[in-house]
Every structure is written in C-alpha cells, then in structure tokens.
Amino acid sequence: MERATVQFDKVTKKIGKKTIIDEISFSIAPGEVFGLLGPNGAGKTTALRMLTGLMKPTKGDIRLCGYSIQKDFEKAIQHVGAIIENPDLYSYLTGYQNLIHFARMSGKVNKERLTEIIALVGLAEAINDKVKTYSLGMRQRLGLAQALLHSPSLVVLDEPTNGLDPAGIGELRQYLKKIAHDEGVTVLVSSHLLSEMELLCDGIAIIQKGKILQIQKMQDIVKNSTLEEHFLEVTDR
Ligand SMILES: Nc1ncnc2c1ncn2[C@@H]1O[C@H](COP(=O)(O)OP(=O)(O)O)[C@@H](O)[C@H]1O
Ligand SMILES: [Mg+2]
Asked: Where does the ABC transporter domain lie (predicted)?
C-alpha cells in the first residue's frame, strides 16, 4: 500500500486543564484533497498548528510522508507548504517580487519553477502589479503560489475561503483540485461549511469539541445522507 502523506495517530492536545484535541486519528493518501470539517472552536486550527510544528502534541504523533514530527521534524516539515494564518505578503512589492523574496529564503527554486507556479495559480497577467492592487482572491492565490514554490508533497490551508466571495471560492477550489490532480500534491483544508467541503474534497473528517466524529469518502456521502443529518445535529448543541 502507498504510504500516507499525513498520519495523525491518537493525537491529543491539552492546554492547562482543557483538552483541545482528544485522541484524533486519521490519514490522508497522496494526491487526496482532504477536509477537516467542524464548527468554530472544534479544534481545526489547533490540529493544523500541530501538524506544521507551531505547537507540540501533548500525546500521540503525526507523521508526514512517514516522518514523525516529534522525532524527525526537519525531514517531516520539508514536505509541507502551509498557509495557517493569512499569507505573509508585502503589499508594496509586486507579486513577482514577493515570490522571489520567498524563493530566496527556501533556496532550491529556479525561474522555470516560478513561471510554472505563477501560471498554475492563474496570476501570469497580474504578477508584475503591486500586491496592494490585488483582490483578496488574488492574494490567496499568491499565498498558494508561495506555499507551492518548493514543490511540497502536502499543502495545508486553514479556512482558506474565509472572506472570499463565491467567485473567489470557486476559483480557489478549481486551483486546489488542479494542484492535487495535476501535480499530485496532497491538500489538507479546514472549513466550517459542509457545502464547501462537498465540492472540494475527496474525503473529510468531522471534528467537534476536539474529537473526530466521522471520517468519510465523499463518494459515500453523496450516496448517503446520514452525514449531513449528523453534522446538523452536532452543531445544534
Ligand atoms: N492557545 C490556546 N490556549 C487556550 N485555549 C485555546 C488556545 N488555542 C485554542 N484554544 C481553544 O481551543 C478550542 C479550539 O480552537 P481552534 O483550534 O482555534 O478551533 P477552530 O479552528 O476549529 O475554530 C477553542 O475552544 C479555543 O478557545
Ligand atoms: Mg480555526
């Protein structure tokens, strides 16, 4: 069997006396678009912060491309491109200058790769404009280009559609599917909207109060409406 790109193994996070993440386990296959779905406060950002090394699990482990983030952090994290908070962009620089700046920090990026990524995220025409003239959707795509520059195996986006209009959401969805299906990149996104996850993801895990309630392949969900009922029931409380 092909090795999972992401493997959460009984991960728990406690802060003070509060259990924020409670023994969650799930795995994501290479090239899969996977959604972490749950209401505000469910623990999505905390889970993604642990995955990217911004926070340490209290118990359990996370493996990225087989490498433990606890024991082999450098090797594990080199596979990840992430946008956890808003992408760090300099608005007084052009899109291209932002990418060059970022490429210098990560080293191994050449001009061909830059051109390829700019085309992939649909910014070829605007790349020499200053970022302050960009729409939110364009900034998101520039952030995505940044995350993709070093050819990661995994891209992690925390609620990437927040603040985007429906057209921007549609575009982002199209680009995320494209990088997964054309570049074989594994995509992990979080959201509190089931409708959005249905359109984007191959599989989802439903998280509520730090616990995973259900893990589903999207094909099964379309056939079977219990998931939706389940989700509405839990968010009602
Ligand atoms: N640093 C922290 N200290 C204490 N509580 C926190 C901290 N970070 C998050 N929490 C709490 O953990 C829960 C999950 O938060 P979060 O992971 O941000 O959820 P989500 O991203 O799903 O909205 C919330 O109740 C939040 O208040
Ligand atoms: Mg969050």
From this structure: 6-234
Surrounding ion ligand 2 within 5 Å at CB are 44-45
Ligand 1 pocket by Cβ (under 6 Å): 15, 20, 38, 40-46
Query: What are the pLDDT digits (tens) for 2-27?
Result: 689 999 999 999 999 999 999 999 99
Identify whether residues 28 and 117 lie together within a single domain: no
Binned at pLDDT 50, 70 and 90, residue 183 comes out as: confident
User: Do residue 68 and residue 157 come from a single domain?
Assistant: yes
71 in the same domain as 158: yes
Domain holding 226, by residue range, is: 6-79+153-236
Residue 76 tokens, joined = 């594990």
- In the chain, DSSP assigns E strands to 6-15, 18-28, 33-37, 59-64, 67-68, 80-83, 154-157, 186-191, 203-208, 211-217
d(CA 144, CA 156): 10
